[in-house]
Amino acid sequence: MTSAEILQQHGIRPSLTRVMIYDYLREHRTHPTADEIYTALSPNAPTLSKTTVYNTMKLLSAEGVIKTITIEEQQARFDACIDTHGHFLCKDCGKVFDFDTELPSMKIPEGFSPTVTEIYCIGRCKSCN
Amino acid sequence: MTSAEILQQHGIRPSLTRVMIYDYLREHRTHPTADEIYTALSPNAPTLSKTTVYNTMKLLSAEGVIKTITIEEQQARFDACIDTHGHFLCKDCGKVFDFDTELPSMKIPEGFSPTVTEIYCIGRCKSCN
DNA sequence: TAATAACTTTGTAATCAATACAATTTATAA
DNA sequence: TTATAAATTGTATTGATTACAAAGTTATTA
């Protein structure tokens, strides 16, 4: 499915800018920061504003199109893959890796309604070990 | 076990300041921010510096005495309970709740060595529902 | 089509959690 | 005591994120 179609399905108007940003995130599974997205797209979109990147990430995240990842860092990272999977942050090189995992059996108390579930680990990656 | 003993077991010299801060975190299971800890302790420790709170949280977290929680917020929260449990962030009231959970069966790739595992949910809590 | 309204994008300025750093204080060892 | 190491403090700075208002774009209605 195209990025534009996915955005539309979530009630988000698929402007050129939004599609470009979402496309980038779908094609680069490196869990980039807002700044990295901005830097990567700037050469081909000279009028792009960093605020727009932030606005777009916030919108897509709120609508469940993408996931916002924050693992003991000041800067948020973003992931276009919203299927269940875990994230592994290497505290040496700072990279974030995906890993397969099941959802655990969580005893969420009565009356609590979760919309997002996240599982992550911190440690050392293969290269840094 | 006393806070001083726990700190010592982790090779951290149990200064008065550190014990006071760690004590507070053990007694207040509200997942406070550094600022909240500082504000709470200031009246009884007028010379306490916010930098010291940050330094202490960083040290205790690095040594595995406490857990640092960051769930799509700019400010980190801290938890003296390091047993396996999940965190639930209510996006309405902003409070963080504990919930029981098992660790899922995670397929961490060969060569990756995790030291910390976290599970959290975002949603709406009982009071806000 | 033209006018209007609604939405999107942009740039600048402001916010604020966290850190750097050097000075001061406190504790330990010789 | 004196010297050395460690801990604490305050100030200044950093840097990610947001606020906000202006400018630009798209959709809607007459």
Task: List the defining traits of the structure above.
homodimer; alpha+beta; Arc Repressor Mutant, subunit A; two-stranded antiparallel ribbon; 24% strand
Outline of the structure:
Two copies of one chain form a homodimer. Chain A has four helices and six strands.
Structure in words:
The structure is a homodimer of 129-residue chains. The first copy, chain A, is of the alpha+beta class and 129 residues long. The first copy, chain A, has a domain at 3-79: Orthogonal Bundle (Arc Repressor Mutant, subunit A). Chain A has helices at 3-9, 16-27, 34-41, 50-62; strands at 67-69, 77-79, 86-90, 96-101, 106-107, 113-124. In chain A, the strands form two sheets. Chain A has a three-stranded mixed sheet, with no helix packed on it. Chain A has a two-stranded antiparallel sheet with strand order 1-2. In chain A, helix 3 packs across helix 4 (50-62). The longest helix of chain A is centred in the middle third of the chain and has 13 residues, at 50-62. Chain A is globular. The N and C termini of chain A lie far apart (38 Å). The mean pLDDT of chain A is 96. The interface between A and B is large, with 39 and 39 residues. Chain A binds a DNA duplex (30 and 30 nucleotides) through helix 4.
Helices, strands, pairings?
Two copies of one chain form a homodimer.
Chain A: H1 3-9, H2 16-27, H3 34-41, H4 50-62, E1 67-69, E2 77-79, E3 86-90, E4 96-101, E5 106-107, E6 113-124
Parallel strand pairs in A: 3-6
Antiparallel strand pairs in A: 1-2, 3-4
The structure holds a DNA duplex (30 and 30 nucleotides).
